[in-house]
Amino acid sequence: MALCNAHYYATRDPLGAAGDFTTAPEISQMFGELIGLWAADLWLRAGKPDVAWVELGPGRGTLSADALRAIAKAVLTPPAHLVETSPLLREAQRRAVPGATHHDGIDTLPTDRPLIVVANEFFDALPIRQIVRTEAGWRERMVDCDGDRFVPTVGAQRFDAVVPDAVSDGDVIETSPASVAILRDLAARIVAQGGALLAIDYGYEGPLAGDTLQALRRHRFADPFAAPGEQDLTAHVDFAALAEAAHAEGAVAHQVTTQGALLGALGITARAATLARAAPNRQSEIEAAWRRLCAPDAMGTLFKALAITAPGWPMPGGFG
Ligand code: SAH
């Protein structure tokens, strides 16, 4: 999954109508602006420390561009650090966020100041492992070759010992050790340096969700084992596991909320009305974007938000 996605993102811009999927920052500028204001509000209440802005997997850089423009009005102009592995998307990000520093991973992020970290649809792109119930007990799902095709199979090793006792039904357990490792490292940084993290993604907060591995191509679901590296591979994010990882490092993990509730609390309805007043010919487009981002039958409920903060930092807006 890691290799497929590395190739996939290195060789195309997958976003938007002409690509494979559309993300919240690409739907409307309101998304990035409100996340920027979320960060600026937290920074103000934390006593205006010298912070760094960090985005994980910024795609075209739209979220950071919209957020940094909005927070510049609050007289906050932090240095921008973008964690991105795709050379092609780095180019787009350089155009959207001039002067940003790129990083291959989180190890090289600044160590001398609080970090405000934002990740939208980042964790879903990281590799997962699946443990599946078979007649011979729990085994790891593996990938085999059948001629020139990839096919799912199960490994020979027994995995029963790692299955929590609480799992009584369901046939698939997913874990994302890569996501947990990144979140733990970031949480440790935030505890040591101060700051906060906001992760938004589609996902669940327990109970176990079963098999959520999916492939998207041209805005439609596809067979995840077909066309390796040519379609977007994702899995739903286990927010309880991320919160637990933050907690294990001593960070404060706030109650997971939904994208709709978060954007509502941050004032998206008022922002949409202001934008529509300024551009009456775009009113229906702005209303449609508001609906897509917030409605329970669109992204409002499936997408969740997790905030973590350093101990002693204020409660982030929209949480608690
Ligand atoms: N956040 C953007 C893009 C989401 S797509 C948006 O909301 O529009 C996922 C992004 O994560 C892409 O920029 C992709 O290149 C990047 N990415 C995927 N795996 C990564 C990894 N292991 N390390 C760093 N970036 C990664």
TrEMBL record:
Domain of life: Bacteria
SUPFAM superfamilies: S-adenosyl-L-methionine-dependent methyltransferases
InterPro entries the UniProt entry points to: NDUFAF7, NDUFAF7_sf, SAM-dependent_MTases_sf
Gene Ontology biological process terms, A to Z: methylation
MF terms (GO), sorted A to Z: protein-arginine omega-N symmetric methyltransferase activity
Keyword 4Fe-4S: no
Keywords on record: Methyltransferase, Transferase
Name of the protein in its database record: SAM-dependent methyltransferase
